[in-house]
C-alpha cells in the first residue's frame, strides 16, 4: 500500500536534508565537517530576550492557549517597529498576524490564497520553500529571473503580459536568499504598479530586513503608497536576533489577505507559546543595538571570506545584506559536483546553487554562520581541493 499522496511523491527532494544526512555519515567515520550550508546563526540570542522569556515562563497565565492572531503585546511591538523603522502605520488589531516563523506563514499563505492550477511568480534562484509550498497547494510556478548582471534584482520585463495577467500571486524576497541581492524602494514601486495593473497580489519575504551592512537600510514593501491594497510582508526574528529555534515571526499588510491566512492557521495551529511572543516583543521594542553588533560580526566574516575567495580567483560582488555569499563555482565544476567534492574531499558543506532553482546552476552559497577560524579553515580546505585551481 502506498501511503504517500501524489503531491508528496512528486515533491522535489530537499537538497539540504541530503547533505545533512551525508554529513552524519561522514562524521560517524571520524571526518571533521565544517557546515557552511544551512543559514542558522551561531551567535547567541541576546541575554535581555532570554531573561524576558524566563520571567514570562514563570507566569501561570502564559501557559494557556495564545489568541489565534497572537498576543496583543507582540502585535503592538510589530506595529511600533514598523512605525519607528519604516514610518509605516499599522493597526495591530487588523494589520498584524503572529506566525510560528515566517517559513510557516509563507507556506500557509500560499495555501490560503491560490487555487489548484493558479500561477505564482517566484524568484529564480529563490528560497526552495516557495516552490515546495506552491507544489503542495497544487499551484503552478512561473519564474522571475534574477540575473547577476542586474545585481539579482527582479527582471519584471522578462515576464510576458500573459504571465502577468494570469498570475494570482508574486513572491519577492529582499534582501535575497540565496543571492544576497538587495533593492531600493523603486523596485517595490514597480511591483505594486504591476500588481494593480494585472490584478495579482504580492508577498514580500523580509526575513533579512535588518541584516544589512554599511549605510544600506533595506526598504519595506509597505513603504510604497497603496501597497497595503495588494500586498503582505513577512518578517522574522530568526536571523536578526539569533532566534531561529524560537520560531517567531509575523505577517503585516492587507487585512483581507491576513484574514485568509488566519483562517488556515486557526484550523492548523494555535499560534506560538505566549512567553516566546512576549520576549519577541521586547526584542522588537529594543534599540536594535544587538542587531547592529551582530551585523558587524557578520561583516567582518564577509570581508575575510571575500578576500579568501579572491585568492582562488572566485570574484564576488560585495553584498549589502544577509549573511550569505553567492559565488560562481570554478570553471571545471557544475554546482552539484563542486558541492559534493567540497563535502567528500574537503569536509566542507556548501550549498549548490541548483538547490535554489535552475537559474542557480553555476553558483554556490556560503553561509557566514560559523566563527572566523572555521571560515578560514574552510577556505584553506577549498584551496587544497584537487582540481579547484
Give your account of this protein's structure.
The protein has 389 residues and is an alpha/beta fold. It folds into two domains: 6-44 and 289-384, Aspartate Aminotransferase, domain 1 (Alpha-Beta Complex), CATH 3.90.1150; 47-284, 3-Layer(aba) Sandwich (Aspartate Aminotransferase, domain 2). 40% of the residues lie in helices and 14% in strands. The protein has helices spanning 6-9, 15-28, 47-57, 72-86, 102-113, 128-136, 161-166, 185-198, 255-266, 274-284, 289-311, 335-346, 372-384; strands at 34-35, 96-99, 119-124, 140-145, 167-173, 201-205, 231-236, 249-253, 324-328, 348-349, 351-352, 363-367. It has a seven-stranded mixed sheet, with helices on both faces. A three-stranded antiparallel sheet has the order 9-12-11. A two-stranded parallel ribbon has the order 1-10. Helix 8 (185-198) links the parallel strand 5 and strand 6 (201-205). Helix 3 runs antiparallel to helix 10, helix 4 (72-86) runs parallel beside helix 10 and helix 11 (289-311) packs parallel to helix 13 (372-384). The longest helix has 23 residues, at 289-311. The radius of gyration is 21 Å and the shape is globular. The protein starts with 5 loop residues before the first helix and ends in a 5-residue tail after the last helix.
Amino acid at each position: 500500500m502506498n501511503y504517500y499522496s501524489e503531491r508528496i511523491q512528486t515533491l522535489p527532494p530537499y537538497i539540504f536534508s541530503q547533505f545533512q544526512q551525508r554529513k552524519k555519515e561522514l562524521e560517524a567515520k571520524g571526518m571533521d565537517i565544517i557546515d557552511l550550508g544551512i543559514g542558522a546563526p551561531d551567535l547567541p540570542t541576546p541575554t535581555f530576550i532570554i531573561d524576558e522569556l524566563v520571567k514570562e515562563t514563570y507566569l501561570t497565565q502564559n501557559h494557556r492557549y495564545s489568541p489565534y492572531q497572537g498576543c496583543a503585546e507582540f502585535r503592538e511591538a510589530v506595529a511600533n517597529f514598523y512605525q519607528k523603522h519604516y514610518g509605516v502605520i499599522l493597526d495591530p488589531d487588523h494589520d498584524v498576524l503572529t506566525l510560528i516563523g515566517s517559513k510557516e506563514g509563507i507556506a500557509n499563505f500560499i495555501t490560503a490564497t491560490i487555487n489548484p492550477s493558479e500561477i505564482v511568480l517566484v524568484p529564480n534562484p529563490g528560497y526552495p520553500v516557495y516552490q515546495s509550498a506552491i507544489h503542495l497547494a497544487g499551484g503552478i510556478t512561473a519564474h522571475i529571473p534574477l540575473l547577476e548582471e542586474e545585481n539579482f534584482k527582479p527582471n519584471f520585463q522578462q515576464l510576458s503580459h500573459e504571465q502577468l495577467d494570469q498570475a494570482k500571486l508574486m513572491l519577492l524576497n529582499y534582501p535575497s536568499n540565496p543571492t544576497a541581492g538587495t533593492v531600493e524602494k523603486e523596485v517595490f514601486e514597480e511591483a505594486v504598479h504591476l500588481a494593480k495593473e494585472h490584478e495579482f497580489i504580492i508577498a514580500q519575504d523580509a526575513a533579512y530586513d535588518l541584516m544589512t551592512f554599511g549605510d544600506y537600510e533595506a526598504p519595506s514593501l509597505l513603504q510604497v503608497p497603496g501597497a497595503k491594497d495588494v500586498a503582505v510582508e513577512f518578517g522574522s526574528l530568526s536571523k536578526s536576533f539569533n532566534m531561529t529555534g524560537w520560531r517567531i515571526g509575523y505577517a503585516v499588510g492587507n487585512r483581507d489577505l491576513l484574514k485568509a491566512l488566519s483562517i488556515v492557521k486557526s484550523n492548523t495551529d494555535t499560534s506560538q507559546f505566549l512567553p516566546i511572543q512576549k520576549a519577541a516583543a521586547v526584542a522588537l521594542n529594543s534599540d536594535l543595538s544587538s542587531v547592529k553588533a551582530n551585523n558587524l560580526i557578520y561583516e567582518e566574516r564577509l570581508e575575510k571570506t571575500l578576500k579568501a575567495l579572491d585568492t582562488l580567483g572566485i570574484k564576488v560582488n560585495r553584498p549589502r545584506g544577509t549573511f550569505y555569499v553567492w559565488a560562481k563555482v570554478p570553471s571545471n565544476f557544475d554546482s552539484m559536483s563542486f558541492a559534493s567534492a567540497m563535502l567528500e574531499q574537503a569536509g566542507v558543506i556548501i550549498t549548490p546553487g541548483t538547490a535554489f532553482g535552475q537559474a542557480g546552476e553555476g553558483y554556490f552559497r556560503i553561509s557566514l554562520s560559523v566563527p572566523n577560524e572555521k571560515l578560514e579553515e574552510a577556505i584553506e580546505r577549498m584551496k587544497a581541493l584537487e582540481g579547484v585551481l
